[in-house]
Design brief:
It contains 3 helices and 6 strands; from the N terminus they run H-H-E-E-H-E-E-E-E. With about 140 residues, it is α+β, with helices and mostly antiparallel strands. It has a 6-stranded antiparallel sheet. The longest helix is centred in the middle third of the chain and has 19 residues. The N and C termini lie far apart (about 30 Å). One of its GO terms (molecular function) is 1,4-dihydroxy-2-naphthoyl-CoA thioesterase activity.
Length: about 140
């Protein structure tokens, strides 16, 4: 059963993210399922740290992008979700290719949402796992 409360598609997410950190870093949305989002980030000059590995902060940007988009499209119309907390465990360095993240809701409540984002390299190996807590805000009067 779909969790989305607003119309969502790869094209809508892409358009929504133009002229932001998402497009600047080359993040691409790949898939929208009934209860998950998939996106990826390139490992290139825009995204590596001085030692040649994908910057840990970029993994967090990918996680927050996917989780925040998921949370906002899972909110009822007139509501929006904003980040409260994010953590990330970096499990494996990446020097080339792409890192692909899959975001799934752990909890969708009236006032909070929790999302888990699993990130993998091109070989399918887990590189980072992140958990994002979102606050759901109602319409301001």
């Amino acid at each position: 059963m779909p969790i989305w409360q607003k119309p969502i598609s790869v094209d809508a997410l892409t358009q929504f993210s133009l002229n932001s950190a998402v497009s600047h870093l080359g993040i691409e949305f790949l898939e929208v399922g009934d209860d998950y989002l998939v996106g990826r980030v390139p490992v290139d000059a825009r995204t590596v740290q001085p030692f040649g590995l994908l910057h840990g902060g970029v993994s967090v940007v990918l996680a927050e992008t996917l989780g925040s988009c998921g949370a906002n499209f899972a909110c009822a119309p007139g509501h929006q979700a904003v980040g409260l907390d994010i953590n990330a465990n970096h499990l494996r360095g990446v020097k080339a290719g792409w890192v692909t993240g899959t975001a799934r809701a752990v909890h969708i409540g009236r006032t909070t949402q929790v999302w888990q984002i699993d990130m993998r390299n091109d070989a399918g190996e887990m590189t980072c796992v992140s958990r994002l807590t979102m606050s759901v805000l109602g319409a301001r009067s």
